[in-house]
Design goal:
By secondary structure, this protein is mainly beta. The chain has a domain at 86-181 and 191-203 and 404-436: Methylamine Dehydrogenase, Chain H. It has four helices and 31 strands. It has helices spanning 2-39, 43-46, 75-82, 182-186, and strands at 88-92, 99-104, 110-115, 119-124, 135-139, 145-152, 157-164, 167-174, 195-199, 202-205, 208-215, 225-231, 235-240, 246-251, 257-262, 268-273, 278-285, 291-300, 307-312, 318-323, 327-332, 344-350, 365-368, 374-379, 382-387, 393-397, 405-410, 415-417, 420-422, 424-429, 434-438. The strands form eight sheets. It has a four-stranded antiparallel β-sheet with strand order 1-31-30-27, with no helix packed on it. Strands 2-3-4-5 form a four-stranded antiparallel β-sheet, with no helix packed on it. It is globular.
């Protein structure tokens, strides 16, 4: 009986021992796999900060030490990095789209700009080195896309050319020279400048390439502002800045225009168009200072290809032209054209700017400094300064803007830069910026 009892107890005991052994084997295998998995977790993951979610992992622990924050770049840092040229003075901000044109007032204290966002902005330039500027913003009528701007009657009003579905319009805004100040803000909210006059479809359905303005000081001219609007087709219209009266129309008859300019004394109009020849018209004033007529008086012949841009010298007696033929020409137009005396070529200068392949670049815009010594020219995003007398390159700013330069304009007189009067050039670009530049010293390299 005892043997039977032992036999009955042995079988369950053996089964229990075998079961425990098997369980120990499985447990040991599980623990080995767990240790292997832990061993292959990246070290950076095991050192994550306890207050961070597990999916946020610092890429560099040193960046999280006290006094060593992650590097960041704000707008000021970027501006400092991009202000790479020694003539770069300042950047005027506030535009939300491509800046299409700009123009200084007579005293240089105000700069008007127009932008593809449909707004006109008047910047008060007390000193070009200022960290901030007073700005007056004027919203154009809905659907109007500005293409040109010019001050009229000093700095008190601006004329804006804008393109819409039905064609180009002109708008004149008065009382734009004084942005709101703390004193007049206390007197109540100022009303925005109103449209004093406007004209619709001034060039049919064609857009305006550029506006140019001058003061009628030649002959019996009374100093009134004369404005020209250059169509992308072949016509150019002459306007009285204050009244908005249309004073005349000329036609280049050259397939299409590239741009047009008016002499500083309001006497001549010149157009760069599709062909190599430049046509010049004279605005004839009556004794009562009104415009009597606009007559074609001369033609500048010498270029071998289309003239892309031109400008008048400050004395209104010379015209500077740039052509696709790779040359710049300086012309004397102070001739007795009524006696069939032809304008004379004073100088022929090679365009000194070349692309990476060695080909001559085409100039898009040009403007001469108020003292007549420095010619500013642009080609796509490059800005260059040339000596008017010799054609020597005074300085070059490659990638002056992040994209094409859309317009340039000199302040008509010296204005303060850090308290020191200086000649200042303004440039506008598709990068939503207007930049201010010092004039280089003539003779420097």
């Amino acid at each position: 009986m005892a043997a039977s009892l032992v036999s009955s107890l042995t079988l369950p005991l053996i089964s229990a021992v075998l079961g425990a052994a098997i369980a120990l084997v499985f447990l040991a295998g599980y623990l080995r796999r767990k240790r292997a998995a832990i061993a292959h977790i990246p070290p950076s993951a095991t050192t994550a900060a306890p207050d961070q979610p597990k999916h946020v992992r610092p890429s560099n622990q040193a960046q999280h030490r006290k006094g060593h924050p992650r590097p960041h770049h704000n707008a000021a840092d970027k501006d400092a990095a991009k202000k790479h040229h020694h003539l770069d003075v300042n950047t005027l901000r506030g535009h939300t789209d491509s800046v299409t044109a700009l123009h200084f007032s007579n005293d240089g204290a105000n700069l008007s700009t127009v932008c593809a966002d449909g707004a006109v902005r008047i910047f008060r330039i007390d000193d070009t080195s200022s960290k901030s500027f007073k700005i007056l913003r004027i919203n154009l009528p809905a659907g109007a896309h500005p293409t040109g701007v010019a001050f009229s009657e000093g700095s008190s009003s601006v004329v804006v050319a804008a393109q819409a579905l039905l064609g180009s319009s002109l708008y004149m805004y008065a009382d734009v020279s004084a942005p709101p100040t703390a004193q007049n803000k206390q007197q109540g909210k100022l009303s925005p400048p109103e449209i004093k006059w406007s004209h619709q479809k001034i060039h049919g359905k064609e857009s305006v390439l550029n506006l140019a303005a001058a003061h009628a000081t030649h002959g019996p001219g009374d100093g009134s502002t004369i404005i020209i609007s250059c169509s992308e087709a072949t016509d150019i219209k002459v306007w009285h800045g204050k009244s908005g009266k249309e004073l005349g129309t000329v036609d280049t008859n050259q397939l299409k225009n590239n741009m047009a300019d008016i002499s500083p004394n309001g006497r001549f109009i010149a157009a760069a168009a599709f062909t190599a020849d430049v046509k010049v018209w004279e605005i004839v004033y009556s004794k009562d200072s009104s415009v009597k007529e606009v007559n074609k008086v001369m033609q500048l012949k010498g270029h071998k290809s289309a003239v892309t841009c031109l400008c008048f010298a400050p004395n209104s007696e010379q015209i500077i032209t740039a052509s696709k033929d790779g040359s710049i020409r300086v012309w004397n137009i102070n001739v007795r054209y009524h006696l069939d005396e032809d304008p004379k070529t004073l100088r022929v200068l090679p365009i000194p700017l070349h692309d990476s392949k060695g080909s001559i670049c085409q100039y898009d815009h040009m403007s001469i400094s108020p003292d007549g010594k420095v010619l500013a020219v642009t080609s796509e995003s490059t800005l260059q300064w040339l000596c008017v007398e010799t054609g020597a390159v005074l300085d070059t700013a490659e990638k002056a803007h992040e994209g094409h330069i859309t317009g340039i304009a000199w302040a008509p007189r010296k204005i303060p830069n850090g308290g020191v009067p200086a000649f200042i050039l303004g440039t506008a670009g598709v990068d939503k910026k207007v930049k201010l530049w010092l004039a280089p010293q003539v003779g420097s390299t």
